[in-house]
Amino acid sequence: MKLKAITPGWSSASAGLVLCATVLGAAASLPAAEREPIQALSRTPVALPADHPFRGTIALDVDARDVAHRIFVVHEKLPVQRAGATTLLYPRWEAASHGPSITVAELAGLDVSANGRSLPWRRDAIEPHAFHLEIPAGTQTMDVRFQVVADANRLSADVVAIAWQHLLLYPAGWYARNVAVVPSVLLPQGLKAFTSLDVSGTDDNWLQFGRVTLERLLDAPVLAGRYATRVPLAENGADAITFDLIATRADDLALPAERAGDLRRMVEQALVVFGTPPFGRYEVLARMSDEGASGGIEHRASAEIDIASSYFRDWAAQLNNRDIVAHEFVHAWNGLYRVPADLWAPTPSVPEGTSLLWMYEGQTEFWARVLAARAGLRSREETLDTLALDAAEVANRPGRAWRPLSDDVNYPSFMLHQSVPWRDWQRRKD
Ligand SMILES: [Zn+2]
């Protein structure tokens, strides 16, 4: 939208412009030559995150049964910390993308009430993920209800992917580690759920999880599927590491003994390299689909892995993707247990610094290659082939001539969800 600057002199000619003249009132007293517009945008302050205690626990209930409309229905009970002005935030930054990849456009039907009375909210004009409210004196708890419009990838009759950072509002003013949450989820009938969260109660298709900090919750997705299997990769008391596989068809679920052996050796090798795990229990949340896109998202005690339905059947074609699980597993130590200083952020609403992203991803990828080779996921020859592929790619990617790696680490702040048609020259995520 283009706005036309209006000079105060026009106001006498048209009643419709009186408002503009009022806004520019300060300028109107100046000599004619200086009557240029000045900005009159008012800002409502949003409390910055602070490291202090949050009283009480947020109850967060997610209903994932409306698969026909692909809508998550959310109900939160928030303990009120004090009466007066307060702000609720919808997350914007995601650990996985290192950028502002969450959009509040997917949130709909927001309704806030207390003691059965509706509380009007006002969206911040500058930060659309912030909702301002006035809490009446004496209010103990706020009821917050809304829906999140998902896509088939996150919500279908056979697969539900719960990414908590898309499914909650939280009060501005506290570090996420200071805010306690008790989450629960209602799933469609017949799905089996996997997560690193501890289940404290279950009834049919309802799962109640134990109390966690908001920080931990944001790093603990739930994956549920109709066709699912669970294969242990290591068992060492509480340090159990499990491969949880979800497929679109039961036939795809068979994990060949050879591949399970590769993954077990990879875990053994990782524990030898890094030592004591930074988790009590680890879940590889692997999901097969016919789209075949491979990728992963790292967490401290789990990994979300996307693989092709033919991943294990057509092992020869997976040369480049065989170290996906190893890569995300290494992140438990490199990137999550040890976090680059400026990458750590107290809430998902403030920016992350990415100056050490080359280390976060680069060192992880290095160890993933080593572990894959040592575990037998790739033979010696195949390992050398992948290195040759990398070398060839680098040699033919001239973007480094104008954009150094120290600038490329900034890609999440301006290249997320953007098309990069001239990849070799624009350079992205090298
Ligand atoms: Zn990574």
From TrEMBL:
<protein>
    <recommendedName>
        <fullName>Peptidase M61</fullName>
    </recommendedName>
</protein>
<feature type="domain" description="Peptidase M61 N-terminal">
    <location>
        <begin position="60"/>
        <end position="226"/>
    </location>
</feature>
<feature type="domain" description="Peptidase M61 catalytic">
    <location>
        <begin position="322"/>
        <end position="428"/>
    </location>
</feature>
<dbReference type="InterPro" id="IPR027268">
    <property type="entry name" value="Peptidase_M4/M1_CTD_sf"/>
</dbReference>
<keyword id="KW-0732">Signal</keyword>
<dbReference type="InterPro" id="IPR040756">
    <property type="entry name" value="Peptidase_M61_N"/>
</dbReference>
<dbReference type="Pfam" id="PF17899">
    <property type="entry name" value="Peptidase_M61_N"/>
</dbReference>
<feature type="signal peptide">
    <location>
        <begin position="1"/>
        <end position="26"/>
    </location>
</feature>
<dbReference type="Pfam" id="PF05299">
    <property type="entry name" value="Peptidase_M61"/>
</dbReference>
<dbReference type="InterPro" id="IPR007963">
    <property type="entry name" value="Peptidase_M61_catalytic"/>
</dbReference>
